[in-house]
Specification:
There is one protein chain. With about 300 residues, the protein is an alpha+beta fold. It has 3 domains: about 80 residues, Orthogonal Bundle (Arc Repressor Mutant, subunit A); about 110 residues, 3-Layer(aba) Sandwich (D-Maltodextrin-Binding Protein, domain 2), CATH 3.40.190.10; about 100 residues, Periplasmic binding protein-like II (D-Maltodextrin-Binding Protein, domain 2, 3-Layer(aba) Sandwich). It contains 12 helices and 15 strands. The strands form 5 sheets. It has a 5-stranded mixed beta sheet with strand order 4-3-5-15-6. It comes from Rhizobium mayense. Keywords: DNA-binding, Transcription, Transcription regulation. InterPro entries: LysR-type_TF_proteobact-type, LysR_HTH_N, LysR_subst-bd, WH-like_DNA-bd_sf, WH_DNA-bd_sf.
Length: about 300
């Protein structure tokens, strides 16, 4: 459709509006006005003969036609925007990367990113979001997302970078109150600071295939918060070993049943299926993998 190829402004305005959530946010990212974005999308809708958004004073939501069109057009625009990487890969790597990673992982490797990656690749700029929330890679327009554990989101390509050791820990003050922990049965009696999302606490997989479903009065969705609560003696905690190793070495936390080999969990890099990773994306992912390998993960 030749007319569609002439509607670059409308295509960009549509995709950015979906990703940003409003005409005004899309306009800001494109360096234009909300009026221009709205008019560009209206022109695109007339060309397509379909309504892409349901508009009201409080709501901007995609129609089913808009959902289907976005699923087709967003990957194409991403590939066009990253096409320059084919040329840049033969010169200095350059461009922008939008990244998401778990909070504690980010804290672990941020120093390496700032002191090693950024000086090595001065033409690459980074937007790094640190959250334990399972972000929507496609809708929130991330180039690459690092996630601990498996992923259930469709339309994603996955690369496993490392297998992370897990530990169950508690503070010395907590153990003073609850006594020696020498069996799984004793673990099941303990209150935990539990990792939970959407009101659902996660179980602790045991080496024999069983799942420990910990009891507890405090549920959190952040490894950082769980670690802080464990150090304060609120409860035992099931955490990635690299983020609490310093606490264990310093005596702030004690590893429970260290002879029990807990299952490792994967650290994965995710990006949209059907898109070739950009050169800068590959460089950054390889860098994270190398940092984790050096840390013993």
């Amino acid at each position: 459709m030749q007319g569609l190829l002439n509607e670059t402004a409308g295509l960009l305005a549509f995709v950015r509006t979906v990703q940003a959530g409003s005409f005004s946010a899309a306009a800001k990212s494109l360096g234009t006005t909300p009026s221009f974005v709205s008019k560009s999308i209206s022109r695109l809708e007339r060309l397509l003969g379909a309504t892409l958004f349901r508009r009201s004073t409080r709501l901007l939501a995609m129609t089913p036609e808009g959902e289907a069109f976005y699923a087709k057009i967003a990957p194409l625009l991403h590939d066009i925007e990253s096409a320059a990487d084919v040329v840049r890969s033969h010169r200095e790597p350059a461009g922008h990367l939008r990244v998401s990673m778990p909070t504690e992982l980010g804290r672990m490797i941020l120093e390496h990113i700032v002191e090693e990656f950024m000086p090595r690749y001065p033409a690459i700029s980074l937007d790094i979001g640190m959250t334990d929330r399972a972000v929507d890679v496609l809708r929130e327009n991330y180039d690459v997302v690092f996630r601990v554990g498996g992923t259930a989101q469709d339309g994603l390509m996955c690369r496993t970078l490392a297998h992370l050791d897990m530990v169950i820990v508690a503070s010395p003050s907590f153990l003073d109150r609850h006594g020696k922990i020498d069996s799984v049965d004793r673990l099941e009696e303990l209150p935990f600071v539990r990792y939970a999302t959407s009101g659902r606490p996660y179980p602790v997989p045991l080496p024999d295939g069983r799942e420990l479903r910990p009891k507890g009065r405090l549920d959190l969705d952040s490894a950082t918060a769980i670690r802080d609560a464990a150090v304060a003696g609120v409860g035992a905690a099931y955490l990635i070993k690299p983020i609490v190793e310093a606490d264990i070495d310093g005596g702030l936390l004690v590893e429970l049943l260290p002879q029990m080999a807990l299952q490792t969990v994967p650290l994965q890099a995710l990006h949209a299926s059907g898109r070739m990773p950009s050169f800068r994306q590959q460089l950054f992912t390889d860098f994270v993998a190398s940092v984790m390998a050096k840390s013993g993960a």
